[in-house]
């Protein structure tokens, strides 16, 4: 597991560093996978990106515009819906090219179709643990405090579709006093 975690950490480090070079203030960084345990990728949100995306008139419906202006109530709801969505982020799968070796390693491992349910659960858990360890490695290096104080960013390992394991991992990856974690727990946790 440690070897797999190191490979994931190396890919995620490159992807996050490239992303963080934009100088924005991030509040959410995730390493996500599917319920089938496919290779992980990153996603993130910064306050600046949330503002840009929520205010982007090209993605607004006619009904949410009033005389060419965005309705403030709709804008607030839109931000609320986007805030913790890995897939709605403009940084979804950012640095995907860095995960090619991770993809090969995951594809070389046994799949759910090749294992019985009990053995697949063990394999799936190993993959999640490797991802969690990778995020811990990057956190210990100080990666997540490059553009903001660490307590202002929630780092996650997420399974999609959402699973309650996401909340357990979030609590292990972030200190209880972390302001971003507290927001995530009240607004998005399973």
UniProtKB/TrEMBL annotation:
Protein's recorded name: DUF4303 domain-containing protein
InterPro entries given in the database record: DUF4303
Source superkingdom: Bacteria
């Amino acid at each position: 597991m440690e070897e797999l975690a190191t490979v994931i950490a190396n890919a995620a480090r490159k992807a996050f560093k490239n992303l963080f070079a934009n100088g924005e203030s991030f509040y959410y960084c995730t390493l996500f996978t599917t319920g089938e345990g496919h290779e992980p990728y990153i996603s993130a949100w910064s306050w600046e990106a949330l503002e840009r995306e929520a205010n982007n008139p090209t993605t607004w419906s006619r009904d949410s515009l009033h005389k060419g202006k965005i309705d403030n109530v709709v804008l607030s709801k839109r931000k609320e819906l986007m805030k913790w969505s890995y897939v709605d982020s403009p940084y979804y799968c950012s640095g995907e090219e860095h995960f090619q070796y991770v993809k090969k390693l995951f594809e070389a491992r046994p799949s759910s179709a090749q294992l019985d349910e009990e053995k697949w659960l063990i394999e799936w858990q190993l993959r999640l643990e490797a991802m969690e360890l990778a995020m811990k490695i990057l956190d210990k290096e100080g990666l997540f405090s490059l553009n903001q104080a660490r307590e202002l960013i929630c780092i996650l390992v997420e399974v999609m579709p959402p699973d309650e394991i996401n909340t357990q991992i979030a609590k292990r990856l972030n200190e209880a006093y972390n302001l971003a974690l507290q927001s995530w727990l009240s607004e998005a946790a399973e």
